[in-house]
Amino acid sequence: MITLNKINFSKYFIYFSLILLLFTNRSFATEDSSLLWKTSAGNSYSHRFFSGEQINKSNINNLTKLWTFNSGSTAALKTVQSPPIFIGDQLLLVTLTGDLISLSPKNGKVLWKKKLNTPLGKRGFTYHESEDSELEGIYVASGKNIVQLNKNGEIKKNFLTGLSLVQPFLDEKTLYVATLREGVKAFDLKTKKEIWSTSLTKNKVNARVWSGFSFDKETNSLFVVTSNPGGIIGENRSGDDFSASLISIDADTGKIKWQFKHVVNDLWDYDLISNPIILKNLKIHNKKEPVNCVIALSKTGDVIMVNIDNGLPVFDNSYVDVSVQKSDMKNVYTPSTQKFYLKPEKFSNIEVDLDNDFDHLEKDNLDFMKNKLRHAKSGFYIPTSVNHDVIVYGLHGGAEWPGATIYRDTNSANLIIPSNKTPWILRLNYQEKKYLDIYDSEYLKEAFSFALSVRSFFRNIFKNDTKKEKVSADIASLKKKNFYEATISKSIDTSFRNRTDVNDFFPASAQKKKMVADIIYKFMPGSFDNKIYSQNCSSCHGNARQGRYEFETKGDNYYPSLVGITKTKKWSMVDTFEKVSKIHKLNNIDLKINIDEYSKMMNYFDKFDEKLFKDDLVVKDGFWQILLDKKGLPATRPPWGKITNINLSTGEKVWEIPFGKRKIDNKEYVSGDQNFGGVISTKSKIIFANGNPDPMAYAYNVDDGKKIWESELPYSGSAPPIAFSYKGCEVVVFTATGGRFVGYKENGDSTVAYKLKNCEFN
Prior knowledge:
Elements: H1 2-34, E1 49-50, E2 63-70, E3 85-86, E4 91-94, E5 99-103, E6 110-115, E7 126-128, E8 137-142, E9 145-149, E10 155-160, E11 169-171, E12 174-178, E13 184-188, E14 194-198, E15 201-202, E16 205-206, E17 214-216, E18 221-225, E19 245-250, E20 256-261, E21 272-282, E22 291-298, E23 303-307, E24 319-323, E25 337-341, H2 363-372, E26 376-377, E27 389-399, E28 405-408, E29 413-432, H3 433-437, H4 442-447, H5 455-459, H6 468-479, H7 484-495, H8 500-505, H9 510-522, H10 531-536, H11 538-541, H12 577-586, H13 595-614, E30 618-626, E31 641-647, E32 652-658, E33 661-664, E34 667-671, E35 678-682, E36 686-690, E37 696-701, E38 707-712, E39 722-726, E40 729-738, E41 747-756
Parallel strand pairs: 1-35, 26-27
Antiparallel strand pairs: 2-41, 3-4, 4-5, 5-6, 7-8, 8-9, 9-10, 11-12, 12-13, 13-14, 15-16, 17-18, 18-19, 19-20, 21-22, 22-23, 24-25, 27-29, 28-29, 29-30, 29-31, 31-32, 33-34, 35-36, 36-37, 37-38, 39-40, 40-41
């Protein structure tokens, strides 16, 4: 009996050992699967987390370049915003010129290349694994389609979805797509038929999806964040729409489950940004039960954490409603309050301190900024107005589209966020209505390609008696002088050079049309008969006093609209010749005009504007522009970029550090610069980051934020890094394409891979 028991025990021990070994092998298999990076956000929860531990803090100094791939493109002022994805045996990336390229993870050699329509995978794409070979493949937004390709780069299917910039998500037999104009859609993967479509247009406001969405299988929910309502004037909007919101959508039906509204009637471009982040079983301080939540990041520097089931804040007293200033413009709805967030702790703020944020500048630069800010206000949700400018940390403030990373172990969950703190100026001006409506003229539509050639041509644009025959005759004559075709194209591109998103995807946008009108007005005779203005002012302020500005350029290249100069509070500070002369001298302009001429001109303006305002021939027009000092740098005190670590259980900051540096005159000048790249975290408590004007890759310690590694890249980073395990070695990959930064002039298209020096591929 005893012997038998011993024998049985031995047998059972062997069985148990085999089962344990089998279980362990399955565990390893699962771990290997998790080391893939199959979507641009890391996984469907958008964690941007790598579970490998081979690269750690003790050996990171042995991290060296494995290979560098350069596509050869140097497309100016464009960037690749989508990181690569890793699908086990190849690394997939998109290029500036619309190529989908497969590289060997081992040496960076091209395996295959496929030309697709642009915009191609601008902000991410996905690899879908499936037991059904028909459904498995690479899914990438290309033009107005989602294209499915196999691992060899062969196109299998095209789904006509509408324009999308973000990675799609897939669940077994369904494709989910977030579009710019048509909301969120679901398609059957086999038939390509649309299953449902959920519009995000409400009360004539179209809330666009600029960032990718996340997907939770357990609750069968899709999560998206939405854009601002469009425009910084805000007239005739009720505030009741889907803009600036975190939204939950039922994956089966497309029905909206709940909406969390961040900003009501957003006048500042304070939309939510980057993929929402799903976080399960989070232990909240002072709460008994763990919660499942969704996290959204904002340009206001707020972390929004809500319950995944109902969209209610996870923390008690998460925000308070604070009274805000009422707009002084007609037909602009101003809510009585906006949200001021208390938990989690803010990682940035929107208010510029006009008294103290500029006192680091040298005297001449400070005087220059005081001139620029003479009409400025800043504060908690100060509304835009024709009577003052608004200065904010926004647009390039708070979070950027690449979002954040979640570092999590058994004891904690941390949100690591790169952010910007660069100031912007929001301006509203009066414009002559015909100036803003010029592009709606049928005459212009037929002839604007030749619009810069002959002055007499322009005199006919506003004549009511213009005959169709006259138009045709003018066009015929202008075709003989078509050397201006290239000029107008170049001029539009130059004026609009940094708005590549709008330029590529919304060529008929109002702002670009306005640029066309601006070019036309430069070559027109003055819209009013005043020689003093025409000889002294029109070259800068425009023949129609419409003003001129360029996007992301030095402030001394901005010349404001002078329409309504005698009728608005904004110009009360420049009502004397002495004040006007002083302002121009600060901009290095010496006015060749005397006091008498100035007085005559202002009297003329007064009469002209009286008629304009009486006849209702003026309209409000607005724009935003990065606020730069005289040297062309962000005007406020640095750091202009940082990384923040927030403990999500408590909602409190763990640490905060400047991110990146800028060299001026061959010396390090600024600690903490703009960033448009991103971060990832690893199980070994390392943060990998890039995306500053300095072409560097960085690594930081999760615990204290200390820099532990850096390496130079060919160009500035423009997308988050990724990490994966390949044939026994962990690899970290950075995307470097330059382009988006103020003052950054180098452009290229490089992908750089790193591994430990002594690690050999098996």
